[in-house]
Amino acid sequence: LNxxxxxxxxxxxxxxxxxxxxxxxxxxxxxxxxxxxxxxWRAYDEEDDRLGGGLRLLYEGYExxxxxxxxxxxxxxxxxxxxxxxxxxxxxxxGLVSKILDTANGGVDAGEFQWRCREAxxxxxxxxHVLLEDERLSASGYKTIAVxxxxxxxxxxxxxxxxMIDPPRGDTVATLRRLQAAGIDV
Length: 186
Prior knowledge:
Blueprint: H1 12-25, H2 35-50, H3 54-59, E1 62-71, E2 76-83, E3 89-95, H4 97-101, H5 118-122, H6 126-139, E4 142-151, E5 157-165, H7 172-181
Antiparallel strand pairs: 1-2, 2-3, 3-4, 4-5
C-alpha cells in the first residue's frame, strides 16, 4: 500500500486525510445518525468542504465491495475495497483500539479476518504506545476509534487513531432524572 512509516510535518496532513478517508470507506453513509459512523462522516464532510472536494478525489479512488457493520462481539467494522487504479483488493477495519491492533486481544473472536498489525509485530512497544495515546485522549474526553488497512490476504498496517468528541445523548438528562427519582445516586 506504500504507507509512510515515518510521518513528518510535511506529510502529516496528507496522512491524516488518508486515515479519515479509510475510516469513511469503512463507514455506512446511510448511518449518519450512528454515533461513530456519523462522527466519521461529519469530520469527512467538514474536511472535504475545507479542501474544496479534495477528500472526495481520494475516496472515489476506491469502490466499496463489501461493508460489514459494527459487530459488538468482535468490536470492529470491516470493509473490502477495490482500488480503481489497479484493481487491488484492500481490507479496512475500524473499531476498538486494542482489537484493531490485534484481533486476539481479549481472546480470539469470530471475526472473518484475524490479524496482528505489522507495526505491533515489528516493535514490541508499538501497541503499548498506541494504547497509552488512546488512554491520554480518553482522559481528555475523547472517544477514539482505530483504523487499520492491508491488501486482502496480506498483513494489516495500523493507520491511526481518530479522536471524537462523545457528546451525551439527547435523552441523557431525562435518563438521569429518572434514575434520581428512583433513588439511585448518579
